[in-house]
Amino acid sequence: MRLVPFNIIRLFHFTQHYDILSSMKIKDHYNVLAVYSLLYTVCREHFAGILDEMADKNWRLSTVCPERFSSHELTNEIGEPYDGIILSMPGTDDVMERIARSNTPMVLINIEDRRLSAHLPNFASVWTDDADIGHCAATHLLERGEYKSVGYVHAPMRRFYSDERMMAFRNTMKKAGYRTSVFASDNGNDIPYPNRLRQWLKELPKPAAIMAVSDMRAAVVINACKLEGIPVPSQVAIIGSDHDISQHAKCGMTISSVVTNDRMMGRQAVRELDFLFRHPKWRGRPHEVLIPAKEVFAGESTARSTSAAHLVKMAQDYINKNFKHNITPTDVVTHLGCSRSLAELRFSQEKGITVRCAIENARMEEVRQRIKRGDSVNSIVTSMQFTSANQLYRIYKRHFGHTLRQTDT
């Protein structure tokens, strides 16, 4: 048996290690292109997430707006080609065809382009979870009250994400016993979109609950209701999505909306591109990541969907659970998701008192019961979060017309 000299074995391992390092394409930095429009809040939030996540990475970032993303933009300002691309919106046809034939790692954000998915060997997709958006919108409306009808409004130019939101919204409403009427695009109809929308709204049995595909569309629906003399939200409760506060001024009220997690979209895009950089020979199934909704913003457009009695009951239930803490009318209104003026109006109609008075009634009755049980003033002040004993004395006398000592025991 012939023995191999030890130094030859060491040389073999060194050569093998060198070959592995050479194949890994070690780089001191990566050139990355982010194709983004920063005109809208959603896009700026996406981009902010990219900046957050790449803070500790050796990346050189360049940006270009989609309208200018052509074949001339495939190198950075110093002439170096891009090692990876984050694409939030498609560019021109020629550049899309070109990058589809390249091996450049790429992350697509809410983009459905068969040219890319069919040819790119190393790409990932980050999607807004549109089904979760539709479910959250339906759940919010169901929590606000009961309805005689439910509807969904697409945008004039119908998109795949609108269908996904609609299907999830409809399924959630179906489980609650509602059938969803869908207002779609023109589809060759001779009647203009605004007139058809007004007619559809007019024919919905009231009170009705409506989800619009976006806040922009929700503002259009609210204005159409105003033109028809349909009160929002007492007769039609409306929720959108994307939480675009610029739309509030267009319809004169705050729009309830499913808030998308746009910043997380950007962060996840960076994570996916980083994965592709670290696995240059990845041939597994492309990553597809869904980002669920962040929360629901409760605005004025769904606040009055409940009856006055139900709204006051919701408020009173909240007060009854929390009066031992130093809650305020603002806390109650925030819980209801309506305006302060609406809450005060409903309390005046149903109880003849203000929200502050309702809180005080609950707190003072609790104080009276504790005094009867023999609790000390200091213990009451501490446990119920009064600012001082003097404050408690003052409020109690004003409320009952006599002092704590004059309370019957």
Helix and strand string, N-terminal first? HEHEEHEHEHEHEHEHEHEHEEHHHHHH
Q: Mean pLDDT across all residues, rounded?
A: 84
CATH superfamily of the largest domain: Response regulator
Helix content: 40-55%
What is the spatial order of strands in the main beta sheet?
2-1-3-4-5-11
Radius of gyration in whole Å, from Cα?
30 Å
The description of the largest β-sheet is: 6 strands, parallel
**CATH 2nd-level architecture of the largest domain:** 3-Layer(aba) Sandwich
Task: Using the coordinates above, name the CATH class of the largest domain.
Answer: Alpha Beta
The fraction of residues assigned to DSSP E strands is 5-15%
What would you say about this model in short?
With 409 residues, this protein is of the alpha/beta class. The chain has helices spanning 6-23, 41-53, 93-100, 114-119, 130-144, 160-175, 193-203, 215-228, 248-251, 262-278, 308-322, 329-336, 340-350, 355-373, 377-383, 389-400, and strands at 30-35, 59-64, 84-87, 106-109, 123-128, 149-153, 180-183, 208-212, 236-241, 256-259, 288-291, 295-297. Helix 2 (41-53) crosses helix 10 (262-278).
Mind explaining what this structure looks like?
The protein is 47% helix and 14% strand. The protein is an alpha/beta fold and 409 residues long. It has three domains: 16-129 and 264-295, 3-Layer(aba) Sandwich (Rossmann fold), CATH 3.40.50; 130-260 and 296-304, 3-Layer(aba) Sandwich (Rossmann fold); 307-406, Arc Repressor Mutant, subunit A. The strands form two sheets. A six-stranded parallel sheet has the order 2-1-3-4-5-11, with helices on one face. A six-stranded mixed sheet has the order 7-6-8-9-10-12, sandwiched between helices. The longest helix has 19 residues, at 355-373. It is globular and about 90 Å long.
